[in-house]
Amino acid sequence: MLVIEGVEPGADDVDELTSALLTASRLLVAVSARSLAAVQDRVTLPQFRLLVVLSWQGPAKLVTLAAGLDVNPSTALRMVDRLVTAGLVERRASARSGREISIELTAAGRAVVEQVTARRRADIAGIVSRMPSGERRALVAALRAFTEAGGEPPVADAVPLGWS
User: Fold this and answer.
1) Which of 3, 59, 79, 137 has its C-alpha lying 20 to 30 A from 40's C-alpha?
2) How far apart are alpha carbons 120 and 122 in whole angstroms?
3) C-beta separation of 54 from 38 below 8 A
4) Which residues form the HTH marR-type domain (predicted)?
């Protein structure tokens, strides 16, 4: 069980932690929006999310992307169409079946993910560096427990995922 100094476990801590996480998520959305500023004429936040999924899991079928993004296949198709037009993803016939189409990142799409992720990482590092050392260590433990409870895989430092 994770124990955070100054926080007594109990029924009220769920509400307090939920409120704190909602506030933190607003901050992270703002960081995400700022990190997209340089490519905003080419990519929206939902489209960037699709690029990140492809960078993380590799080429995928449209229905798999739609499920991973929790959107309708028609929504995913429109996003893919726009990203193909922008030169950030491409459609390829699957090696397994000529009828299956696989969506994958282009070199330009990978560059966008890496550029935006680098900006996001720098912005978050700036925020974290302003926290006292002890609070940073407690935050790491708390966030690891939170993401583990939510079933989110950890971000590998060597692989820039961007949407984490």
Assistant:
1) 59
2) 5
3) no
4) 14-148
Whole-model pTM: value is: 0.75
* Chain center to CA of 73: 20
- Inform me whether the pLDDT recorded for 164 exceeds 70: no
Q: What is the DSSP string of 57-102?
A: H-SB-HHHHHHHHTS-HHHHHHHHHHHHHTTSEEEEE-SS-TT-EE
**φ, ψ dihedrals at 41, nearest 5°:** -70, -15
What is the rounded CA–CA span in Å between residue 122 and residue 64?
Answer: 31
Radius of gyration of the chain (CA): 18
Distance CA 87, CA 99 (A): 23
Residue 44 phi/psi, 5-degree rounding, is -90, 170
pLDDT in tens, 65-112: 999 899 999 999 999 999 999 999 999 987 777 778 899 999 999 999
Per-residue pLDDT, 54: 95
- Cα separation, 161 vs 164, in Å, equals 7
Reported as a single tens digit per residue, the pLDDT across 131-160 is 999 999 999 999 999 999 988 777 664 344
d(CA 121, CA 127): 10
Q: Cβ(76)–Cβ(62) under 8 Å?
A: yes
